[in-house]
Automatic annotation (TrEMBL):
Domain of life where this protein originates: Bacteria
Chief subcellular location: other
Keyword Isomerase: yes
InterPro entries: ClpP/crotonase-like_dom_sf (IPR029045), ECH/Chromodomain_protein (IPR051053), Enoyl-CoA_hydra/iso (IPR001753)
Full protein name: Enoyl-CoA hydratase/isomerase family protein
Organism field: Rhodococcus spelaei
Keyword annotations: Isomerase, Peroxisome
Entry-linked Pfam families: ECH_1 (PF00378)
Coiled coil: none
GO MF annotation, one: delta(3)-delta(2)-enoyl-CoA isomerase activity
Protein location: Peroxisome
Length: 259
């Protein structure tokens, strides 16, 4: 299994469990996480979901080897749900979602925080949205969720720079709610999860629905724009240079590419 599922006190903990790959999302992990969220949404004994990672990473984002195969291997077989299915599940998840960022979070390992109702982060963890470094576009409605969550200029830097954001910066921006010592992260996140889980699920769902409903149309429109830009850029000169540089273990050089 690429994900571990544990239940306690109406809190379902989902632990991304590809530690050797820094919990990068391959097709199997996208499918497993999508199905785990859908199962938790439908389970009357689950009030809150707590999402974290195993080992030293929260998630290193999309598995770049599979990304390269998607553009170059005619026999590449996508998963049942894939990236789009996971974003659908996050968007539709009706109950509180808490993220405990235990280590590095890249790509979807960072943009998932746009869907979190509460986020906790170890003070040793770091986040990065590497889209410009990969020659692609934003994802997961981050182009609308991040400006709302952390402000336009913070979002512009996070989404455009492909620079690491440390825990103190993430807290100052409002990308996460609390920063903890690594050994205290899960206890702190779980304590807050259990406090919410003691409340009536119907009320939790109502609060979340009334908070998120006004954003739904904006999120849907943002995803369409992002997907169109991503499709245009995927496999283009900048993306090929980024993936080639990754495979060769060097930094990409975009300076000689056409605009």
């Amino acid at each position: 299994m690429s994900i571990r599922i544990d239940d306690d006190k109406r809190v379902r903990t989902l632990t991304l469990d590809r530690p050797d790959a820094l919990n990068a999302f391959n097709e199997a992990l996208y499918d497993a996480t999508t199905e785990a969220l859908r199962d938790a949404a439908a389970d009357p004994d689950v009030a809150v979901v707590l999402l974290t990672g195993s080992g030293r990473a929260f998630s290193a984002g999309t598995d770049l080897r599979e990304m390269a195969a998607r553009t170059s291997d005619p026999d590449f077989t996508p998963g049942k749900h894939g990236f789009t299915g996971l974003i659908d599940a996050l968007l539709e998840f009706p109950k509180p979602l808490i993220c405990a960022v235990n280590g590095i979070g890249l790509g979807i390992g960072a943009t998932v925080l746009g869907f979190a109702d509460l986020a906790f982060m170890a003070n040793t963890a770091r986040l990065k949205c590497p889209f410009t470094g990969l020659g692609v576009a934003p994802e997961a409605a981050s182009s609308v969720l991040f400006p709302r969550l952390i402000g336009r200029q913070n979002a512009a830097w996070v989404l455009m720079s492909s620079e690491w954001i440390d825990a103190a910066q993430a807290k100052e921006m409002g990308l996460v709610w609390q920063v903890c010592e690594p050994e205290e992260l899960m206890d702190t996140a779980r304590r807050h999860a259990e406090a919410l889980a003691a409340k009536p699920i119907s009320s939790l769902v109502a609060v979340k629905r009334t908070m998120t409903a006004p954003l739904r149309a904006e999120i849907d429109a943002a995803r369409e724009r992002e997907n169109a830009c991503f499709a245009e850029l995927m496999g283009g000169p900048a993306n090929i240079e980024a993936l080639t540089a990754f495979a060769q273990g060097r930094e990409p050089d975009f300076t000689r590419l056409p605009a």
